[in-house]
Each structure stands twice: as C-alpha cells, then as structure tokens.
Amino acid sequence: MRSYLGDRMFVERDGAVYVERTLGNRVRRGLLLELDLEQYDYGSKSASPIRPTEGTMVERLAPRIEVRRGAELELPHILVLIDDPERTVIEPIAAERGALAKLYATDLMLGGGHVAGYAVDAGRGERVTNALRALASPAAFARRYGVPEATAVMLFAMGDGNHSLATAKACWESAKGAVGMDHPSRYALVEVVNIHDPALEFSPIHRLLFAVTADIRAAMAEAFGSRLSCTDLPTAAAMREHVNAARGPSHVAGLIGPGRRFSVVEIADPLSTLAVGTLQPFVDRFVERGGATHVDYVHGDDTLERLAADARNVGLYLPALGKSDLLRMVVREGPLPRKTFSMGEADEKRFYVEARRIR
To answer: What is the pTM assigned to this prediction?
Structure first.
C-alpha cells in the first residue's frame, strides 16, 4: 500500500461516487459514502443509527484487526442497506447519470459482470444528504415500521461485510484516544444500496454438518417433539420446491443426507420469527453433543447438495428471507441469527475496486 501511494498509482478525489454494477440483465445501483463509526454499534442490543442485521461473531474480528491495524488504506467490500421505498436517495442520481463524470469502468472476473463509478458533485451530494436526513426523521421512521416515535432510528443496516465494519469500529475504538476525534480512521468506506432496488436479490445461507455420527432426524424429533413432522421426498428438486412454496406460521426446511436422502422438516408453533432462528440453536447443540464435528455456512443450492452427498455429511437447506421482512424484524427484534441471509450469490458480491486512506 505504501509503495502504491508513493508511486501515485491511485487517482484521488473528494465526494461521493455513484456505482453501477451490471449483473446479467440487472443493474444494481449504489453510492459510495463514508460512515461515521461513532454512530455504529455491532452489539446484540444495538440501537445506533448504523446497525447490524445479523449477530456479530466477535471471535472472527482478531485476524481482521491484525490486517487493518497497520494498513494505510481500506479496500471495502461492505454493502449497507437503506429503506427508501419512495426512491429519494440513490435513484435521482441514477436518473442523471449522463451528467456525471465517469471515474472508472471495467469488466469483472469469474462471472462478476461489470462495474462503473461516477463522480457525484457537491450539489447532488447535498441532495443525497437531505434525502437521508428525511429518512432518518423519527416521525417518518415510526410510520415506516409501525413503532413509537421514541424508538431509536436505524438509518443504515448492514447487508454484507458486517465483520469488516465491526473490525473498523474495533480499530477506531482502540486508536481514537491517541489520534483524536478528527482522524480518517473514524470513518469507513461503504457502498449504500436501497433495499428496494429490484436488482438486489437475497439468497439463503445453508448449513452443512460434517462427519455426522448421530441420527439427525431422531435428534430433531427429540428436540422439537410433537411439533416436528418429517417427510421424505424423491429428489433434491422436490425438496427445494416444497420448502420454497411453504407459507404459514410453521417453519419449513430441507434435509439432505446422509447420502442421497432428501427430507422436508416442518416445525409448528416456532418461538422465533425465522426458520434459521428456530434451527440454529438445534444445530449448535447437535455439534456440542458430538453429533457432528463442526458446521459450515454454504452459499448456493448446488454447492450444498454436492457437499451433502458425502455419506459423512448432512445439509440443512433453508428458505430465503424476504427483503420486505428484513429491516422490520431488525428494528423490532434486534439483529437476526448469524449467517441468516446473503445479498445475492458469490459472484454478485462487491469487488475490491475503490480504496480510502485511513492513516
């Protein structure tokens, strides 16, 4: 990083950047902004304006902190959500893209599509700020979520990269006593996306249990009792179709394995709002009791099916989370269970394109 800065390899500018990410026939639109880490709390009881949507695994921060501590730059992959149903923040900038100066445009590797960035001038930047302030109005926030006006406002909600932003927060907390409050490491560079952008798609994150030695269906029957029903189906496709078509108050998920066995489990009268909230505690207990050696979090239906086909493994296929439900649940219930959802498939994630000085 120091070498690149010394060789002036970067083109520097002040101000927001409008970003277009082309994914097949979809275009996701976002704004690169700096967020104030003083306004972010990643704790489970967070009531800060910038808030996690999922539980933060603090044990995952240490290696990230070691990387960031001596870094001159941050190169973020963080996507942050705003709830802007009237499309007042990002979409007006997109409509005027032809008037913006293009900063970069490039194809991306491995099916990542195309990305382009455009400079947002001061006048348009002020419009963005005013629109964000309007979204953060306590009265507007209360109407949006059906909560009392005294409820703490959440303006920015983490989409992808929560542990990266939590790392930036941890580094800032440890440094601010020495560097003072007016320091670039107080802020973090993120891409802000409207959750109502039609190009933004949510995907589930499945669970994969390794080296399973216990009968997981019997363990579920013991854990959930008469509230559990389990139905075997002939194929993975039939299992997925059944899970994704399920409606109603019960929680439904798929089981793959051991081997080529496919089942649908249904749990009545769940205590949690989400299927993952019902099943994650069971998975944790199953591993703790030695039923499996460990659990991993898997993106992609095909990947889960391929890995669960190993006779030693079992896959837990989870339904997708509806975009309209996400932020309402975070406001009302707090952060969701860890690894609840993914914003798109792996090749739709942010690439490391833009950098920002943090020292």
So the answer is: 0.84
